[in-house]
Design a protein that fits this description.
Keywords: Signal. This is Excreted virulence factor EspC (Type VII ESX diderm). InterPro entries: EspC. This protein has a domain of 64 residues. The chain is 79% helix and 0% strand. The protein has three helices and no strands. The longest helix is centred in the last third of the chain and has 52 residues. The radius of gyration is 24 Å and the shape is rod-shaped.
Length: 105
């Protein structure tokens, strides 16, 4: 059998960091959504209509990708925090079971 070791505090810390990154990506997506191409219309006027339309499509895609990124970070956070807790629970239960046998370590 291969030995396995996990530092659950490190796994949980990664989960917390991932949650922070998810929040930041969500905020960036919200800011990107608000800063839409409507603000550019008056600047470019009639001759810039095609650019403004293209920019609008790119800006919408950018905001959608930020939403996907935030979702990915949130999923990683949840998985890491759950994994750390499960490892700790399993390790504690195994230790209690082994201690109950009365065999000295």
């Amino acid at each position: 059998m291969t030995e396995f070791s996990a530092t659950t505090a490190g796994i949980a810390a990664f989960g917390a960091t991932a949650a922070t990154l998810a929040t930041q990506a969500e905020a960036a997506g919200a800011a990107a959504a608000v800063a839409g191409p409507a603000l550019l219309g008056p600047v470019f006027g009639l001759i810039g209509g095609e650019f403004v339309a293209a920019f609008g499509g790119a800006q919408t895609a950018h905001a959608a990708q930020l939403e996907r990124l935030a979702s990915a970070w949130a999923s990683m956070s949840e998985a890491a925090i759950t994994t750390a807790a499960t490892y700790d629970t399993t390790d504690d239960a195994t230790a209690a079971t082994l201690s109950a046998t009365g065999v000295a370590s």
